[in-house]
Amino acid sequence: MADQFTADQFAWLNQVAADHDLPSAAFKLAYIVGRHVNREKGCAWPGQESLARAIGTTVRTVRSLTENLIARGHLAVEVHRGRGLTNVYRMLLKGKPASAFAAEERKIDAQKPETACAKTGSGLPTNPLTNPLKNPAAREPDWKLGGGEGVWVECESPQGDAWRRHWRAQGRLEAVRSGRTGYYARRLPSAYPPGWEG
User: Fold this and answer.
1) Are residues 8 and 96 in the same domain?
2) Same structural domain for residues 91 and 111?
3) What backbone phi and psi angles, to 5 degrees, belong to 27?
């Protein structure tokens, strides 16, 4: 009889395979990430180059497929930039907390965000919902970072704090931050999370 970790891992792979909105190569990436998951820590940290070699594609494609898996709620990624650092991947099984794959429950520390949110002098407003842009041309490249509908949320703002509390309550990791802009790398569905009451 399979242990709980193996059963959850197969359930996660079945979940990814059943998502027909994903490109077919996303399952290959999910399979390779799943093979690297550490039973004790519940996460994997293979390099993007290793993942690209394993699925026979480019690093750029690995990044795109990773974004698809994140957007569809199958994967959480802690981004680590710098020489010798790799991203940390966590499989997200719908209906279970992000720590379901870890040997022991771990709490996400509210005082220590997973990644740094650098402030830059890009001319972006402190609150994009209420303050006008100082220099509209400075915003143009940032709007092209993520696609689709939604709202750009500044990481270190009341909206960002509300989203982090919401994700912790659901047992999910924080969305990827853009160290270049100070905003989350993708648009969020709304300025505040569902059911938020301030």
Assistant:
1) yes
2) no
3) -65, -40
